Amino acid sequence: MPSSDEPAIRLREVTHVYGAGAAAVTAVGPVSLDVPAGEFLVLVGASGCGKSTLLRLIAGFEAATAGAVRVAGADPSPGVTSSVVFQQPRLFPWKSVGGNIDVALKYARVPRQDRAARREELLARVGLDGMADRQIWEISGGQQQRVAIARALAAPTPLLLLDEPFAALDALTRERLQEDLRAVSAATARTSVFVTHSAEEAVFLGSRIVVLTHRPGRIALDLTVDLPRSGVSADELRGSAEYAALRTEVGRAVKLAAAA
Ligand SMILES: Nc1ncnc2c1ncn2[C@@H]1O[C@H](COP(=O)(O)OP(=O)(O)OP(=O)(O)O)[C@@H](O)[C@H]1O
């Protein structure tokens, strides 16, 4: 039975193996980790270290080969325990911006009469006020990813999972989206797990950072980030000595973990 005493995410000695026999690839583990509600956890590590696999286990897209994955004391179930944002927005191209949000609101059983207000609120949260009637092909890649985030926020799942959502965007758009996601996270306090290669992105977004070793991914560093979550501008944050020191520390840890 789900229990309120359980952390938002609990991983116990989790291992994941793809394939079998001579073709078996151990992608992750063993990993043990407790994530309290409200935390913004960033998983960072070199390419192929198992970050996406760990996220997929937390989402429930994959079942662990060994060990236990629990979300608030229950088995993970995509769309029920978590909403996922991928590198590509995966929107319905034949629906408008608002239509894409409505699908999630309908699925979340938001009453029809409440949907328009909720849709506008979600679009405003991601900086797309008044864009509900635009078609998906009329908006930029960055705006499409904003719609994907709003759609994920529409579902009242305990977890928000993001798998390199900004990796395909240009540097300026990526920075703007990072800033808006940080603000959304501070305002909603939804427990989140964000996967990235970038130490910089990890430090900017995370309230906690876990660096993974090379494959099979294990925890190389588990760091609480004490930077302020609100009340400071993105430029001030990025310009601070604490931010620079953390970025260096995490960048070094990622390199060391990849080489070890
Ligand atoms: N379906 C699969 N079948 C076999 N091996 C897989 C499968 N998916 C992933 N792998 C392997 O498992 C390892 C971990 O993959 P994963 O995608 O989790 O890493 P990652 O850290 O997210 O990588 P990247 O940052 O490049 O996306 C890699 O070596 C990958 O080749």
UniProtKB/TrEMBL annotation:
This is ATP-binding cassette domain-containing protein. PROSITE patterns: ABC_TRANSPORTER_1, ABC_TRANSPORTER_2. The keyword Transport applies. Residues 9-239 form the ABC transporter domain. One of its GO terms (molecular function) is ATP binding. It comes from Rhodococcus oryzae. The keyword Metal-binding does not apply. Gene3D superfamilies: P-loop containing nucleotide triphosphate hydrolases. It holds the Pfam family ABC_tran. Keywords: ATP-binding, Nucleotide-binding, Transport.
